[in-house]
Structure to design on (419 residues):
């Protein structure tokens, strides 16, 4: 919309003999705009648009009062309330008015939660991606543990998030640190808690994990549900992100063993660097941690159960290695009970053999006694199969009816009495 002065200038230029194109070049207005104002007989005037917010003036005090009492009230609720009071404006006007009020009430600053030496650690799971193991694609997870005072970090990669793995990772972390703090902070993972109560001490803990933390004498602490709870374990949340971005993403690994082997020097490197918050290497502050000793008790016993198919050549695969079984069980389903490095193999609840779990992959663990008698059994089977094939190929001659010779003489017209 052009003001009256602009409309007057267009008409004066037209009266001076300028064409519409020339007026457009002189004024910068487009030709359609110039034509519109030239063809109108009267100058157009417009009243200034009333400010929308003024419609809200008599209701602002009500909105401010309500937000003072209930700071989380939504714009929708307050819009409906003032509509009942006679407000005829739009919802967007109400929302626009409320925005700076709510922002001023929001507390942006947060208090960092620091712990004293030996008091608390934080634990969480992270998901890294996928990896091929035993010919199938498996999810790859990382277990992350950090000590609250020193920021000493620990991590390891796993193929599952079972409670057995969760406990084993804890013990590996305890060994890495040389001890453990008096408590650990967790989110509400099923590895730790089955049913979360308002007070964490009243929650129903995972029985297997409960046996574990009671055995070592540390206390599990549970985050509050939701975003606020997640903020209380920000140290381990940051560690998970750090593992993904600094250790895993953008790297190429040959297999699971390669990831495990490369994680140890990586941990050594990052724990010797100055921490972003403390400005001191975690390995130095670890000396001040007052951890409970890990080696005063024998390791907590964990039994893991896995199922595997035994191949026709009498082996099953576990984490990239092949283990033999007695040849009579080829093709059967095996149940593995793994405790520490000992692996017991069951078929139909019968313990058929045992193995020691080997590190690395691509190895074949063969016990010669598992194949005793196999060659003889194969020869006997082949001989039996051969005899069956020969038997099936025999041709049986048809039976011929036997008759007295006199019947043949009669048939040929001879007489036996002539002789």
């Amino acid at each position: 919309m052009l003001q009256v002065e602009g409309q007057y200038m267009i008409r004066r230029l037209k009266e001076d003999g300028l064409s519409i194109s020339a007026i457009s070049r002189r004024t910068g207005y487009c030709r359609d705009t110039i034509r519109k104002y030239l063809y109108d007989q009267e100058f157009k005037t417009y009243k200034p648009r009333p400010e929308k917010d003024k419609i809200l003036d008599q209701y602002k005090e009500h909105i401010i009062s309500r937000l003072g009492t209930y700071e989380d009230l939504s714009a929708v609720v307050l819009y409906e309330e003032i509509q009942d009071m006679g407000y005829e404006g739009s919802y967007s006007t109400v929302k626009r008015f409320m925005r700076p009020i709510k922002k001023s009430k929001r507390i942006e600053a947060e208090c960092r939660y620091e712990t004293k030496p030996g008091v608390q650690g934080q634990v969480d799971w992270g998901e890294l991606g996928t990896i091929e193991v035993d010919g199938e694609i498996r999810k790859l997870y990382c277990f992350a543990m950090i000590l609250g005072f020193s920021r000493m970090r620990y991590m390891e990669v796993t193929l599952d998030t079972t409670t057995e793995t969760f406990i084993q990772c804890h013990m590996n972390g305890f060994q890495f640190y040389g001890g453990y703090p008096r408590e650990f902070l967790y989110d509400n993972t099923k590895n730790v808690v089955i049913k979360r109560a308002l007070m964490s001490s009243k929650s129903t803990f995972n029985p297997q994990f409960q046996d574990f933390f009671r055995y070592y004498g540390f206390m599990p602490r549970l985050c509050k549900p939701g975003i606020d709870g997640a903020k209380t374990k920000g140290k381990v949340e940051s560690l998970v992100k750090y593992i993904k971005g600094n250790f895993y993403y953008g790297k190429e690994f040959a297999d699971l063993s390669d990831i495990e082997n490369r994680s140890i020097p990586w941990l050594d490197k990052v724990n010797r660097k100055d921490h972003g918050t403390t400005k001191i290497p975690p390995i130095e502050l670890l000396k001040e941690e007052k951890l409970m000793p890990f080696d005063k008790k024998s390791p907590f016993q964990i039994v893991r159960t896995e199922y595997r198919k035994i191949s026709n050549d009498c082996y099953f695969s576990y984490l990239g290695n092949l283990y033999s079984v007695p040849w009579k069980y080829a093709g059967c389903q095996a149940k593995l009970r793994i405790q520490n490095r000992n692996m017991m193999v069951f078929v139909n609840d019968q313990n058929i053999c045992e193995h020691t779990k080997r590190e690395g992959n691509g190895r074949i663990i063969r016990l010669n006694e598992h194949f005793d008698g196999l060659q003889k059994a194969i020869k006997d089977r082949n001989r039996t199969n051969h005899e069956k094939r020969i038997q099936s190929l025999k041709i049986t001659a048809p039976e011929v009816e036997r008759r007295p010779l006199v019947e043949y003489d009669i048939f040929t017209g001879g007489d036996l009495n002539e002789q």
About this structure: The chain has a mean pLDDT of 84. The radius of gyration is 43 Å. The longest helix spans residues 374-393. The longest strand covers residues 120-133.
